[in-house]
């Protein structure tokens, strides 16, 4: 299935929400889609690591990191773990680090910014709850579609064939 968020918006304009353009593409995969799983945390990536250590086939981890640009929630280690567990991608309302490595990995990663400082690992936060950022509310089990142009959210799986 080819993901083209512009075409998705043309076809499904009344059925999708489009994230405000606050995220950049940091991963090696330009386009990805999947079922939403959520983590809400602030400058602590313990729950992110825990989620990415589980099977992720057909899933995208959506992280509400509070928009922090002071600590990175995604790095080469947990991105590689996500690949090993077959995650499709990561949408992070927060920061990443080790961007040269992330760009070489076969996973989609959208985030706000890059910073070299790592986040804590205390597992503070919440999982599988509604989160809101970039003008959109994400619910667990929503469907998300992302490419280099943007990120689109749907309550239903879209027919892209």
Structure report:
The chain has 161 residues and is of the alpha/beta class. It has helices at 5-11, 46-52, 76-84, 99-104; strands spanning 16-18, 24-25, 32-40, 59-64, 72-74, 89-96, 108-114, 126-127, 131-133, 136-138, 143-146, 151-154. The chain has one domain (5-12, 22-154): Ribonuclease E inhibitor RraA/RraA-like (Glucose Oxidase, domain 1), CATH 3.50.30. It contains 4 helices and 12 strands, in the order H-E-E-E-H-E-E-H-E-H-E-E-E-E-E-E. Strands 1, 2, 3, 4, 5, 6, 7, 8, 11 and 12 form a 10-stranded mixed sheet that branches. A two-stranded antiparallel sheet has the order 9-10. It is globular. The termini are close together.
Q: How would the blueprint of this fold be written?
A:
Blueprint: H1 5-11, E1 16-18, E2 24-25, E3 32-40, H2 46-52, E4 59-64, E5 72-74, H3 76-84, E6 89-96, H4 99-104, E7 108-114, E8 126-127, E9 131-133, E10 136-138, E11 143-146, E12 151-154
Parallel strand pairs: 3-4, 4-6, 5-6, 6-7
Antiparallel strand pairs: 1-12, 2-7, 3-8, 3-11, 9-10, 11-12
Short précis:
With 161 residues, the chain is α/β, with parallel strands linked by helices. Helices cover 18% and strands 34% of the residues. The chain has four helices and twelve strands, in the order H-E-E-E-H-E-E-H-E-H-E-E-E-E-E-E.
SSE succession: HEEEHEEHEHEEEEEE
Strand fraction band?
25-35%
Give the number of helices.
Answer: 4
CATH overall fold name = Glucose Oxidase, domain 1
Q: Can you tell me the CATH class?
A: Alpha Beta
What does the average pLDDT come to?
A: 97
| Unreliable segments of 5+ consecutive residues | none
Which oligomerization state do the chains in this entry correspond to? single chain
Largest sheet: 10 strands, mixed
CATH H-level superfamily title: Ribonuclease E inhibitor RraA/RraA-like
* Straight-line distance between termini: 7 Å
CATH second-level architecture? 3-Layer(bba) Sandwich
Shape: globular
Rg: 14 Å
**Based on helices, strands and strand pairing, what is the structural class?**
alpha/beta
Q: Which range best describes the helical content: under 10%, 10-25%, 25-40%, 40-55%, 55-70% or over 70%? A: 10-25%
Total separate domains: 1
β-strand number: 12
């Amino acid at each position: 299935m080819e993901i083209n968020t512009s075409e998705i918006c043309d076809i499904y304009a009344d059925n999708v929400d489009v994230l405000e353009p606050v995220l950049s593409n940091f991963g090696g995969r330009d386009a990805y889609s999947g079922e939403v799983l959520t983590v809400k945390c602030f400058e602590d990536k313990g729950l992110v690591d825990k989620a990415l250590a589980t099977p992720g086939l057909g899933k995208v981890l959506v992280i509400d990191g509070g928009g922090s640009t002071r600590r990175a929630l995604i790095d080469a280690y947990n991105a590689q773990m996500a690949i090993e567990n077959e995650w499709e991608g990561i949408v992070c309302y927060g920061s990443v680090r080790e961007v040269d490595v992330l760009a070489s990995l076969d996973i989609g990663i959208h985030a706000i910014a890059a910073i070299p400082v790592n986040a804590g690992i205390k597992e503070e936060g919440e999982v599988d709850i509604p989160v809101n950022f970039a003008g959109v509310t994400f619910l667990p089990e929503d469907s998300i579609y992302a490419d280099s142009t943007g990120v689109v959210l749907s309550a239903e799986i879209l027919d892209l064939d």
